[in-house]
Amino acid sequence: LKTIINALLNSIKQLVEVMTLTVFCLMVFALFALQVYMGVLKNKCVKSMPSANLTNEEWRA
């Protein structure tokens, strides 16, 4: 029983280290993505939608 408990504690310590490294890498990736894509999806020009139904030809015109 003592051996099993020690093995469990050691594995939990190693799991915490791996999770810490994973969270750190994800945070770095998220910060990089925020800097790269900051404002890219804002202020896009879009066609205003008329109130009437349009055919495909009228929409493309």
TrEMBL record:
<dbReference type="GO" id="GO:0019228">
    <property type="term" value="P:neuronal action potential"/>
</dbReference>
<dbReference type="InterPro" id="IPR043203">
    <property type="entry name" value="VGCC_Ca_Na"/>
</dbReference>
<keyword id="KW-0472">Membrane</keyword>
<feature type="transmembrane region" description="Helical">
    <location>
        <begin position="18"/>
        <end position="40"/>
    </location>
</feature>
<dbReference type="InterPro" id="IPR005821">
    <property type="entry name" value="Ion_trans_dom"/>
</dbReference>
<keyword id="KW-0812">Transmembrane</keyword>
<dbReference type="GO" id="GO:0005248">
    <property type="term" value="F:voltage-gated sodium channel activity"/>
</dbReference>
<dbReference type="Pfam" id="PF00520">
    <property type="entry name" value="Ion_trans"/>
</dbReference>
<keyword id="KW-1133">Transmembrane helix</keyword>
<dbReference type="GO" id="GO:0001518">
    <property type="term" value="C:voltage-gated sodium channel complex"/>
</dbReference>
<dbReference type="GO" id="GO:0086010">
    <property type="term" value="P:membrane depolarization during action potential"/>
</dbReference>
<protein>
    <recommendedName>
        <fullName>Ion transport domain-containing protein</fullName>
    </recommendedName>
</protein>
<feature type="domain" description="Ion transport">
    <location>
        <begin position="1"/>
        <end position="48"/>
    </location>
</feature>
